[in-house]
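Our consortium's second objective concerns turning raw sequence data into structural hypotheses that experimental partners can test. To show how far this objective has progressed, the report includes one record in full. It was chosen at random from the queue rather than selected for favorable results. The single chain below, 155 residues long, was entered without modification.
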Amino acid sequence: PAQRRVCGAEATHGLAEALRVPGVPLELIVQATSIEGIALVAAGLCPANPTELLESARFDGLLGELRERFDAIVIDSPPAPGMADATLLAQRSDAAIVVVRGDHTSRAKAAAAVATLQRTSTRVLGTLLHGGSGAMAAVHERGERRARGSEGGVP
């Protein structure tokens, strides 16, 4: 839903509907956006069984069709640690970039996300700091250590 808002796309059918209903043409789910050269396949309505849909041959086929039609495909997924969907998507991708919220994500959680992806043999291109600043991230890290009772210097 967030990508649809950012790209200025309409709320229409998305990936979930294309995976649940056989024969949905790409034209029905691929949307033009307000950003030149960018098209979007929105998530669609959250299904009861997202992991099952992402493991399906139908999803693999859809990705194949998208690869034929577009130069590059960017898949936005939920956080990696503990999320089966993120690792399933990473396994079907050429590479991954770990997005870290500077005002929210600790170094340990970011490292766990990278380790989770590497265990699936995913090529991790790097990390992207989003939101906050380095100082805010350091304060968050220090706050986590304080909460655990292991306050030390800010790295």
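The partners drew two points from this record. Residues 14 and 29 are 5 Å apart (CA to CA). DSSP finds eight helices and four strands in the chain. Both points have been shared with the crystallography group to help prioritize constructs.
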